Amino acid sequence: MPAEYSLPQFVADLRSITAATADEREILRRIAPLAERLAANPGLPDAPAIHSNVEKGFSFNLLHEEPDRTLAVALLSWLPSGATLPHNHGTWGIVVGLAGAEKNIFWRRLDDGSRAGYAELERVGEMECILGQALVLPSPTIHSVENSTAEPSVSLHIYGKNVYYTGRSQFDIVNKRELPWGVKAS
To answer: Alpha-carbon distance 49 to 157, whole Å?
Structure first.
């Protein structure tokens, strides 16, 4: 039986892949199957967190990030009825379901982004985060997340940079506003 794929092995592979190419599509193509392989490690949910922050029905447990805040790996746990506003990440991302249900709702920006603080979005689709399968989120993706079940969910998240340091935005679709969503705004 092959040895389990560990977090340190995954981080080494992340470093190697991102050092070899800057092409986001290639990075996502190469990392997605490795993220699925890491997610299959039964000890992953028990990995010690660097920090945890509970807000709006979810916790963000950072497992690894580089000193410059790149190549972040985290476990997110969505509590029952936990949800986010539509948001972007300001970087590429990959999500793999580990337990429970996580619905990703995708949005398209209709305005051109030229008015500060204004954004008009339309819902364009949704996808369940399937257990063990990678959901690839290129950097321009805008999505919201919800757990509409009675059970918590857990998912593995890999980002090109820790999302709390990318200058990402969240969107108030009712009032058509774009708001900062970072360390202080979370």
So the answer is: 13
Kindly state whether residue 157 falls inside one of the protein's structural domains.
yes
The total number of structural domains that make up the chain: 1
The answer to whether residues 71 and 19 touch, using CB atoms and an 8 Å cutoff, is no
CATH number for the domain harbouring residue 108: 2.60.120.10
1 within a domain of the structure (yes/no): no
Q: Which amino acid is at 11?
A: V
In a domain, 185, yes or no: no
> How would you label 40-79 residue by residue, b for 16+ Cβ within 10 Å and e otherwise?
ebeebeebeeeeeeeeebbbbbbbbbeeeebbbbbbbbbb
**How many Å apart are CA 4 and CA 46, to the nearest integer?**
14
Among residues 161, 80, 174, the alpha carbon closest in space to that of 121 is found at 174
Amino acid 186: pLDDT = 40
Asked if the structure places residue 163 within a domain, the reply is yes
pLDDT number for residue 80: 83
Residue stretches of the chain with pLDDT short of 70: 1-2, 45-56, 182-186
Q: Which domain holds residue 116?
A: 7-180
Q: What is the C-alpha to C-alpha distance for residues 118 and 107, in angstroms, rounded to an integer?
A: 15
